[in-house]
Amino acid sequence: MILDTLENAKRYFGVHEGFRKAFEFLLHADPKGLSPGRTGIEGDHLFAIVSQGPGRGRREARLEAHARYIDIQYVVSGIDMMGWKPVAACKRPAGPFDSEKDIGFFDDDPDAWIAVHSGTFAIFFPEDAHMPLLSAGEIHKVVVKVAVDLTS
Prior knowledge:
Blueprint: E1 2-5, H1 19-28, E2 37-42, E3 46-54, E4 63-65, E5 69-77, E6 79-86, E7 104-106, E8 112-117, E9 120-124, E10 128-134, E11 138-147
Antiparallel strand pairs: 1-9, 2-3, 3-11, 4-7, 5-9, 5-11, 6-8, 6-10
């Protein structure tokens, strides 16, 4: 898991071959002007999901994890209090992993809480279970989905 501000995004271009395009999208595509829903960047290998609305409480949330995608969760406005726990430490799956939707849920409690403020992003790799969209207020965010394997 990585937490940083968008102004430092260039530091992460070399972490994964899709990060340069993902961060260039966030740096140049006026996130405030993007319509809610999916925005294509590079087919199913790299795309963004824009959401804006009220946060949810901890009782309504579950840890989630993905196998095929890395999440770059950029908060445009508001504060997203996110939970985190290593997938390897999750012991209570909330059902089978949904391969088609690339998501699995856990009923475990997070090991850490991270306040992700506007202008800040969190990167969650397949090893990172995360619990996003926790807030008493409105959250406007862009989640860039980067395929772990850009060749398939």
